[in-house]
Amino acid sequence: MGKLPWKNLLPVLAFYALILSISALPAYRIQKIDSRFHLPNDKVMHLSVYTVFGFLLGGLPYPSAVLGMTGSLLGALDEQSQRFAPGRDVSIRDWFADILGVSLGLTLRRRR
Questions:
Q1: Does residue 4 have a pLDDT over 70?
Q2: What is the pTM of this model?
Q3: Taking the CA atoms of the chain, what radius of gyration do you get in angstroms?
Q4: What 8-state DSSP symbol labels residue 91?
């Protein structure tokens, strides 16, 4: 596998940091943003964000199965971290949307 190129790892780390920072927002801040921008359904948001994340993961030089499991675990970690944000809760359905998004993103990236 050789040396991991930073140009592929940096976007993955930066995007996951963005995901975690948004997940840490209290519910009232999310509602305020939603009232201004009319965000799509929660599950659609999870699917969309994690599709991009899966696409970025797909640029790393590891087997798709390993990247899929890593993305799924990071999605679970993200979901669990929401229990510490006021007014937010943990949802297994959100995690399923994350897993589906990672799978879709990996598929799109690896088919090119």
A1: no
A2: 0.89
A3: 14
A4: -
